[in-house]
Design goal:
By secondary structure, this protein is mostly helical. It has two helices and no strands.
């Protein structure tokens, strides 16, 4: 059985450089965990969360 879902737009294989959720989570979870631990250690967790929220908001607006 194929590992692709029926109706997938990729005929033979996925395009190079395609960022999928498993790949994104493998990168994002360790980075987020290290950032939160560093913020906790330096007592700047709230500021860290505000900066992350601001950056993601700006990215969302500019990529629109």
């Amino acid at each position: 059985m194929s590992d692709f879902m029926p109706g997938t737009p990729y005929f033979d294989e996925r395009p190079k450089g395609l960022l999928t959720w498993p790949k994104l989570l493998r990168i994002g979870i360790p980075v987020a965990a290290i950032s939160i631990l560093a913020g906790w250690h330096f007592d700047v967790v709230i500021e860290l969360m505000l900066v992350i929220t601001g950056v993601l908001t700006i990215l969302a607006i500019t990529r629109r």
